[in-house]
Input
Amino acid sequence: MSESKPNQNAGSQRNQRETKKMDPGERQAQQRAAVARRMSQVKRKVMVLSGKGGVGKSTVAVNLAIAAGQAGIRTGLLDIDIHGPSIPKLLGLEGHRPDVRGNDIQPIEAQENLKVMSIGFLLENRDDAVIWRGPMKYNAIRQFLAEVEWGELDLLIVDSPPGTGDEPLSVVQLVGNADGAIVVTTPQEVALADVRKCINFCRQLSLPVLGVIENMSGFRCPRCGNVTDVFGSGGGEKMAADMAIPFLGKMPIDRRISESGDSGKPYVTMKDGLPSAELFRKAAVSITRTEREE
Output
């Protein structure tokens, strides 16, 4: 089986030829220095994590980023879900391609105060499978951090794939001083069991957990507005209390949320508004103010 090969920019190819002449230690030091230079322009780096797939993590990341931009916070959204990039779809940006200027990759401007980068922008076809092992994923993430011209940002939100594997570990190790993580879960125990592992992952890497969001916390009837606890409710809130972590709020299952994702129009931008939208507005402001605990 052949590996999917997203388009590589010319600047990256030149850099690769130059670094081949160096010994491994020197090359790694230069690469880390490049990441450090780029990240020095970003005030806060926050990861969005989940222990279990299918809990709405990318939906949370997108709406959090949109809410931050609306609040005047200069925001970047980096999608490091190499095998399942959904950010382009959720933002209505499918088919966009980043420009390359010199050695710099230009992120996609999604709206005022919001720049976006995803492996999904580099695929020839949106249905292409990216069949990569750990080292290739690490190099792609390093390139996104070092070569994307984010400019000066108040906040960089990193949307990670589920679990505690190569991708989130690579970001934490490359950035070195990430400000924290928001963890997304659903109420039932099958999701909470993996989320506890995700929180322990953060603690082992000295990555502060800024808060927990409980998604799919009941089903909101589109006719009467009543909420039925299909998957239960309160499990994420109780877990947060037990583990001494801030609880940021609950999001019910709402047809308008899924429709907004499919249409590429995040629900936090909807004119009629949704109760969950205020959750993201408050969370966006709070994570730009919380100081990192050393």
Observations:
- The longest helix spans residues 24-39.
- The chain is about 40% helix and 20% strand.
- The first strand starts at residue 42 and ends at 49.
- Residues 10-287 form a domain with the Rossmann fold fold (CATH 3.40.50.300).
